[in-house]
Amino acid sequence: MKRPRPSALRRWLARTPPPAVLAVGYLTLIAVGGLLLMLPPMTHTPITLSDALFTSTSAVTVTGLNVVDTELVYAFWGQLVIAVLIQLGGLGLMTFAVLIWSALGRPLGITQGTYLREDLNQTSYGKLTRLVWTILRIVVMAEVAGAMLLCLSFMPHHGLGPGLWHAIFHSVSAFNNAGFSTFSPGLTGYALDPVVNVVIPVLFIAGGIGYVVIADLYQRAFWRGWSLHTRMMMVGTAILIVGGVAMTAILEWDNPNTLAQYHSITARLTVAWFQGVTTRTAGFNSTDIAGLEESTSFMYMILMIIGAGPTSTGGGLKVTTVFVMLLATWAFLRRRTEVTGFGRSIPLGDVLKAMALMAMASAVIVTAIFLLLISEGGDFVDIAFEVSSAFGTVGLSRAYTPELSEFGRAVIMVVMFLGRVGPLTLGFFLATRMVPRVRYPAGQVHLG
Amino acid sequence: MKRPRPSALRRWLARTPPPAVLAVGYLTLIAVGGLLLMLPPMTHTPITLSDALFTSTSAVTVTGLNVVDTELVYAFWGQLVIAVLIQLGGLGLMTFAVLIWSALGRPLGITQGTYLREDLNQTSYGKLTRLVWTILRIVVMAEVAGAMLLCLSFMPHHGLGPGLWHAIFHSVSAFNNAGFSTFSPGLTGYALDPVVNVVIPVLFIAGGIGYVVIADLYQRAFWRGWSLHTRMMMVGTAILIVGGVAMTAILEWDNPNTLAQYHSITARLTVAWFQGVTTRTAGFNSTDIAGLEESTSFMYMILMIIGAGPTSTGGGLKVTTVFVMLLATWAFLRRRTEVTGFGRSIPLGDVLKAMALMAMASAVIVTAIFLLLISEGGDFVDIAFEVSSAFGTVGLSRAYTPELSEFGRAVIMVVMFLGRVGPLTLGFFLATRMVPRVRYPAGQVHLG
Ligand SMILES: [K+]
Ligand SMILES: [K+]
Asked: What residue ranges are annotated as transmembrane (chains A, B) (predicted)?
């Protein structure tokens, strides 16, 4: 106990595997955030430790499920803490740690590099510093621009000061796919607002597609210059957006709880657009989620579990994981010994990683649903929806989160944590190598 | 059109891939069975073509879902047709075809052998004839013994003639995991009958574990002599039986609709035993399935989707497929480049096959649930339970089958067909070979 603390920390960092460091980091952030939210200036009315920890977990994992109302219960300072937790959680603790290290003028050594790599699934050490600065530039640019544009919608209703804060909060929440809102009814009051319907989706799609893809789009030629990963993400995201929006419109068109409360075709299409595109991981809502048809709810569960892209602010299995599974199945059916897509071969290790991710995700989701069915009184669809939402760190709920028992809250907190940290830490196991027969040049895919 | 028909058939067989032949065979059997059931002597009251085709599909795929009551609607001749369809479907059309070929004294040529191999996932041509005779001996012995024992329970209540018929029908239905019953309320009237509670489970466990395993148990030394496949099946089946029965007892103990209607502990354990063990693929019920807790219903969905063993009369993903997935995930987490279990390595082609099966099963189940949610009015749990039951060819229902619309019936018929024929035909693609690094001796696993 006589040694100075930093040295003990450094020795711990050196002997602990990166996934464990990452998990401990997130847990620490959640604990600190929860304790901060308990302080009197944070809330209008006192909250329990369970309320505070749930909010903190939901913010750090950028999920957006809430047991207490963000607008009514949290004061400005509480909302600021939530915004900071969202930003730290969304960027990834490790990115932030390296940012601080390099800001302090320390060389980006191999040890620190390992942690960042863990968080971003990036294999080349050399490009890391550049990547981190690219990320930071994108985040600041996107969030400032988003906040400025959102002021156009929020200031007229709420005045200059509160309007600015709502705009900043929603910009941070949107870019980080957190789905938290400083409005009690979410964005239903802005369901037809053109600025909200463009700016917020642009922010969360950009945040959810992954930094690697954004950098590729920014620096390389269209399609031919893109990596296999970027191609998969762009095609997969396009399919999921078009499919999600179209199916929402078709299934909900005549539902009086959702689209049919609007008479004009444009209004219905606007709401279908927003709700269809937000479901994969952003988790904002511009209509009543508990009023959705069961068919739409089921489709949303699937979309939430698929989620967004790796190295992004989104959660879930990830688009590339599902894509690789589909390509592997297709290769199997065509009796190919090699999995290929977009003219690139996919290493067998990646296929096995996708499979392991799927198997573990299924285990987590099934176990959580089973536990909640036993512990909670409640509808199966509500419970399955809540668990899918937590695993995909989406944050949509059929008005079920506040009804959870203490045990139910614990289950959902664990699922949010695993949904966010699990796939990241599994990236660690990418190191597993198989011996594939290479015919096509090998492409690199991020699966976590 | 001047050529004789057998020659045209033979040419078609020669140029059509075996999975297509198998599928066409099953479809033909379903169509013929459906038309037969429309004949006046078959039923007490007229049935529609849709009723008849649904019954025929359910019988040929040994599922046991029913839109009309087998006891009240079908006369003796109809029940006999159903029993024959069950027997043909359970043994596998191709096994039967080869039995007939060899009974006619024709040599078991390479062409016919391919079809049988397809159906039984057996790779060595030489052992086929022996295997077929082993199968037939087992079937006849088991069903005759089962029927004789069941007479002890059924004859006192129903008289000699009807008692004998009930015993024969239930013996055939049990060994083939069909779950059809000539009693309207299923076996609830015999929920505490000791003979029924022993004989029927023994029959369907024997039928569901697969002929290959039975032959191994019969001919080889305990454990050391068993193949990797037999070890996996025995361990997996034991885990699923113990887990299913224990969880049924725990979850339903105080449910007045099911176990709590009995006062004695022995009675409750007896019902938990029967219902827990029958769920994986047999599909008999000795209690009210619609009265089960939602947690139990969800667990049963998982058990039904897992199903029984390959080369057996059961359906579903198969125990070995799930086992291989778990072993592969475990190997991945331990950063092993090779999947191993019970001291044998599992070829990478088998791992990919398991993955492809899982992916396609998920696609079928999700699509079917989605379609039924759109087309049918009904509870999500009822629908998901019905689809899981159809895919696993189990036949349990939360009293939902008779409520299906014509479109809903079509969906369930397709799922039953895919659940039975899909995994069998996928066995065809086992031919895909990877290049594994061999360290352990390679073991053979059946995944379909
Ligand atoms: K979210
Ligand atoms: K069955």
From this structure: 20-39, 74-101, 131-155, 198-218, 230-251, 300-333, 354-374, 410-431
pLDDT at A104: 44
DSSP state of B340: E
- Per-residue burial over B78-109, b = 16 or more CB atoms within 10 Å of its CB, e = otherwise: bbbbbbebbbbbbbbbbbbbbbebbeeeeebe
Q: State the helix-helix crossing angle for B211-219 and B128-158, rounded to 10 degrees.
A: 100
Residues of B in contact with A433 (CB under 8 A): 337
Coil, helix or strand at residue B71: helix
Identity of the amino acid at A291: G
Residue A230 pairs with which residues in a beta bridge?
none
The predicted pLDDT at position A439 comes to 39
A183 touches chain B (CB under 8 A): no
Specify whether the CB–CB gap between A240 and A319 falls below 8 A. yes
B393 CA distance to ligand 2 middle (Å): 5
Q: How far is A293 from chain B (nearest CA, A)?
A: 9
> What Cα–Cα distance (Å) separates residue B290 from each residue in A378, A381, B285, B293, B381?
17, 17, 11, 9, 10
Contact B298 A326 (CB under 8 A): no
Token pair for residue B196?
């029924």
List, for residues B28-86, the tens digit of each pLDDT value.
999 999 999 999 888 898 899 999 999 999 999 989 898 988 888 999 999 999 999 99
Tell me the pLDDT tens digit for each residue of B229-239: 788 888 888 99
Inform me whether the C-beta atom of residue A336 falls under 8 Å from chain B C-beta atoms: yes
CA distance A354 to A447: 6
Question: At A345, phi and psi to the nearest 5?
Answer: -90, 150
Q: What residue in B sits closest to A252 (Cα-Cα)?
A: B374
Going by C-beta distance under 8 Å and a sequence separation of 6 or more, which residues neighbour residue B128? B98, B108, B113, B116, B117, B120, B122
CA distance linking residue B388 with residue B278, whole number of Å: 14
Residues 6+ away with beta carbon under 8 Å from A60: A26, A29, A30, A33, A85, A86, A88, A89, A420
Whether this model's ipTM surpasses 0.90 comes out as: no
Amino acid at A240: L
Pairing of strands A339-341, A344-346: antiparallel
CA of B204 to the centre of ligand 2 (A): 9
How far lies B382's CA from each of A26, A381, A434, B441, in Å? 39, 11, 43, 46
Q: Measure CA B417 to chain center.
A: 11
The answer to whether A99 touches A132, Cβ cutoff 8 Å, is: yes
**Residue B118: how many CB atoms within 10 A of its CB?**
22
**Residue B373: which of A295, A326, A369 has the nearest Cβ?**
A295
Q: Identify all chain A residues contacting B352, using CB atoms and an 8 Å cutoff.
A: 328, 332, 351
DSSP designation for B290: G
Residue B204: Cβ within 10 Å count: 29
Round to whole Å and give the CA distance between B199 and B127.
Answer: 30
Tokens of A243: 């499919």
B323-330 LR contacts (CB < 8 Å, sep 24+): B323/B232, B323/B235, B323/B236, B324/B350, B324/B351, B324/B354, B324/B445, B324/B447, B325/A355, B325/A359, B325/B354, B325/B355, B325/B358, B326/A359, B328/A352, B328/A355, B328/A356, B328/A359, B328/B354, B328/B355, B329/A355, B329/A356, B329/A359, B329/A360
Does B148 contact A at CB distance below 8 Å?
Answer: no
| Cβ A20 vs Cβ A36: under 8 Å | no
